[in-house]
Amino acid sequence: MADKKIYLSSPTMHGEEQEFIREAFDTNWVAPLGPNVNAFEKELADYVGIAHASALSAGTAAIHLALRVLGIGEGDVVFVPSLTFSATCNPVVYEKATPVFIDSETDTWNMDPEALKRGFEIYPNPKAVIVVHLYGTPAKLDEIIEICDEHGVPLIEDAAESLSSTYKGKHTGTFGKIGIYSFNGNKIITTSGGGMLVSKEEEITQKATFLATQARDAARHYQHSQIGYNYRMSNITAGIGRGQLLHLEEHKALKKEIYKQYKEAFADIPEIGLNPLNKDGDANCWLTGMIIKEGCPVTPDNIMDALADHNIESRPVWKPMHLQPVFAECDFVTAKGSKGKGNQGADVAADVFNRGLCLPSDIKNTKEDMELIIRIIRGCFGR
Ligand SMILES: Cc1ncc(COP(=O)(O)O)c(C=O)c1O
Questions:
Q1: Ligand 1 in contact with 318 (CB < 6 A)?
Q2: Is the confidence at residue 40, as pLDDT, over 90?
Q3: What domains can you pick out in the chain, each with its CATH number?
Q4: From ligand 1's centre to the CA of 182, what distance in Å?
Q5: What pTM was estimated for this model as a whole?
Q6: What is the whole-number distance in angstroms between the Cα of residue 222 and the centre of ligand 1?
Q7: How far, in Å, is the centroid of ligand 1 from the Cα of 14?
Q8: Is residue 1's pLDDT more than 70?
């Protein structure tokens, strides 16, 4: 096995991060509040073009608080795409609400507007819709927003993977009533762990920050009228974020270049496709996904094994939530019908999972690393 490990997507630090951290140490702002937290909120909000932001300990915490702020509670139905990471829907269950999983479409792999429409027919009163921009590719936002508006249901944008991606020139995360970002270690920029909740409405981010700091009422003594959380981002973590934000556009350009290199390298192999990019968007290409043509004997496992033999990390596409044991009781809606109604129809999410995988998309990959990865994958197809 080769000594050097090639990663799927690992942190890329630049040096400015340490300057912000040093300043925090020098001024003894080593706390879950402080100037870096306030500045990171403002800088991120300015970057994506939204008025308000609340810096939190994780993207998952941000989704949880989005649901809390919207008053989602026991028994409420929330529409969530099936093809996503479990963090999108776990907070729905924290609040004892019911996730109903919506299938993907094939143009972007994201929530299918047709399946969403069907979802509203079967469940006429959901309390929220969560859309995800998978692997950084914007979902069909125009269609999804139109459906949500028609029913007066708030949209939460899980833009954990799509920070810096735009749809029709506007940043993902800024379309919904609430948007969330993640700064987990593998994301396009990282704070080691962290998240942000954004909104046009100050009342929403203020409420999120209040809940994130144990819901302390305005009183001298410790008084609480609501249940709160310890979800605030620390001043040290926010310092890393400020340094990373300076390099976000550069990271995006490098990620897009990786997608382009794979596209060119496999152009002559009809059995290989890449994750489709929304024609109305500019994706950050956080991870390049690959999909093997139906009927081809090569499997995603064959490719992942061949790469692993060379100490190269890759991974399956997210296993759809409706196929997860923990969500076996939840309904799954496609454009044709639903599992609960016994007429589910074709399952795009499962098909993408069965034929897809995520390719190494680390922006520190050298030209030689990329050549090696491409050679190994081409070899799996006898090229
Ligand atoms: C789609 C999606 N949603 C939510 C999350 C959760 O973010 P975090 O890890 O910051 O809690 C992640 C990533 O981890 C994600 O990929």
A1: no
A2: yes
A3: 16-245 (3.40.640.10), 248-331+340-380 (3.90.1150.10)
A4: 6
A5: 0.97
A6: 32
A7: 23
A8: no
